[in-house]
Amino acid sequence: MKRTVSFGKLALAVVCAMAFTAQPASARMRVHDMAESPAYKQKAPGMVGRGLLNGITFFVDTIVDTITDTRSGPPVIGTLAGFGRGIGCSALRLGSGAVDIVTFWVPGFNGFPVSDSYYNCLDVSMSTPAATSYQAPAESPVMLESAPSYATPTETAPDTSSTPLEPGQRKYSK
Fold first, then answer.
1. Percent of the chain having pLDDT more than 90?
2. Which phi and psi (to 5°) does residue 9 adopt?
3. Which of 8, 79, 86, 164 lies at 20 to 30 Å from 116 by C-alpha?
4. How many angstroms separate the CA atoms of 111 and 96, rounded?
5. Alpha-carbon distance 94 to 153, whole Å?
């Protein structure tokens, strides 16, 4: 007995598939950029996505680094060095993924980003622009006034053993 699917059921299935796979505007961002976002509604799903991605694909670092170093160096040394670096990067990627999944809910904490490139797991500057946008806090006048002043010794300190020091006078100049 041959089963036939009506055109109406097929059209309904296509419409449902399109409705359930439609992406909101935040899903169009890269998952690494979402995880580094200061906005919590983008950061939390981004960290879960980045954590799952790193947890599922951690083993790729070992393969890529072994092949890359074998091609670029002496066959045995390059293979061993690439394998070692790949194991290290795989462990780093798996640990980063675990931290992202466990701490996605913590506001203000964006995890430990690992490069989204498998050629160099430590090169985060190319993969996440938010990681390079850190700005040091502005110095306040209170901090500057209360900071202790340390005298630096000069190359030739004046001989002050015979003359007493005035109040506030230092043996060494700044």
1. 35
2. -70, -40
3. 79
4. 7
5. 50
Lookup result for tokens 């055109």: 7
| Number of Cβ within a 10 Å radius of residue 58 | 22
Structure tokens at 62: 């070992």
In a domain, 138, yes or no: no
Residue 26 confidence (pLDDT) above 60? no
Cα end-to-end distance, the chain, whole Å: 98
Minimum mean pLDDT among 7-16, 68-77, 112-121, 137-146: which range?
137-146
The answer to whether residue 42 sits within a structural domain is no
Q: Does residue 125 lie in a domain region?
A: yes
Domain encompassing residue 75 = 59-131
Largest CA distance in the chain: 117
Q: Is there a domain that residue 31 lies in?
A: no
